[in-house]
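Working notes for the structural subgroup meeting. M.R. asked for a predicted model of this chain before we commit to crystallization trials. I am recording the input and output together here so anyone reviewing the notebook later can reproduce the run.

Input as submitted:
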Amino acid sequence: MTAITDFHVKGANGGDVDLSEFADKVLLVVNVASKCGFTPQYEGLEALHRQYADRGFEVLGFPCNQFGAQEPGNAEEIANFCSLTYDVTFPVFAKIDVNGSNADPLYNELKKQAPGMLGFVGMDGIKWNFTKFLIGRDGKVVERYAPTTKPEDIAADIEKLL
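Returned structure, recorded in token form:
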């Protein structure tokens, strides 16, 4: 099992980001979209980020356009939307695929560590925007949450890891 903090991803500016900069932190990794029914969860994600950041917690947002084309914007448009609409201060990275042959290696590892519905083969794919993965300080997935799980409902689990 590979630690999430062993991966490199693309930043919103296209540059390489070494996730080891988040080592020893509790992380909530979320595939996000700006035109989804769950988009208002940005507010709750930001609230969690602000509440726990000084205790070693980070939210990491990964825009994805694979579900109903609900993240059509480029990096600049996504950043502006997040900042102006929800005052997002947590990192939002480059747009990625989370499923299929072009899925980002980070998401392949997340799905491997925390399979979806009952863990059946073929059921581990990301089902929709705002699927959430809670990562412990060791860089391993602790829990996977459905898109319908509100960020505030994860607070107690985050508390346990801090």
